[in-house]
Amino acid sequence: MMAIELPPEILMIIFIYLTPSDLYTISSVCKKFRSILWPKTEISQHIWRKSRLHHIPFLNRSPPKLCTTTSGTEVMSEQQYLWLMIICEKCQFCEQKDKIKLTLYWEAKFYCCSTCLQKRTISGYKLIQGFPKVLIKFLNELPKMPGVANWEPQLYFESEAKRLLEEYNQVREYERDAWIERKESITKETKKEIKIYREFHSEFKYNFREVARKMALEIEAEDYEDKIMGLKEFKNFYCTQLATPSKFIKHTKV
Ligand SMILES: [Zn+2]
Known about the structure:
The structure is a single chain. By secondary structure, the protein is mainly alpha-helical. The protein has a domain at 91-223. The protein is 55% helix and 9% strand. The chain is built from twelve helices and six strands. It has helices at residues 8-16, 20-27, 31-37, 42-55, 78-87, 114-118, 124-127, 158-170, 176-205, 208-225, 231-243, 245-253, and strands at residues 65-69, 72-75, 102-105, 110-113, 121-123, 155-157. Strands 1-2 form a two-stranded antiparallel ribbon. The chain is globular. 19% of the residues are buried. Residues 241-254 have low confidence and may be disordered. The structure holds zinc ion. Zinc ion is lined by residues 91, 93-94, 96, 112-113, 115-116. Residues 1-51 form the F-box domain.
């Protein structure tokens, strides 16, 4: 008997013992497996959660409550959570595989490099031209954290702004005040949740040395922009001067 012919209740038991990566792979094997593993049902969440806790016991925190809808927030699916936390090993938009150059943005649910991120952010100045001012406070600013090169204040995620505007446009005019009030408390909660999970991901994915390397990348990008000698150039300059002291002395004499 082939695995595909097994009744769903037996398959579910087998699935629980597979790793999250295996679950991803087999969900693309056939329609039957996909129909069990892919939709966000109670059963699929149970399978993915069991697999997570069984194979990655350190990943014992449940998915964050981040997905906003007109009526409130929703818990992220186990599938998306596992994808962002462990399965995705390259930039979501390009082929960059160096994890030092990759950062997870819970705000937009991106795991990507700085170059790809830049193409997906929008400045407050540009945004305000076609965006109701009242909505700005509900957006997440690009966080200042290790690995975020070219950071500046009031940079927002374009996808988040677009989604928020769509949500706002669906609300009837006479319901807008109540919606804004509800949104204020949801935003507060979501921002708190993002902060917790940002730290959790950083500790889970990067060791101390890797965090330091991420910070060095960020400083180099900033210095490059400010036309300040980068860390590497500074090191080269310093070493050259030490290696040829006579040149240095000559200069100081003049
Ligand atoms: Zn990229």
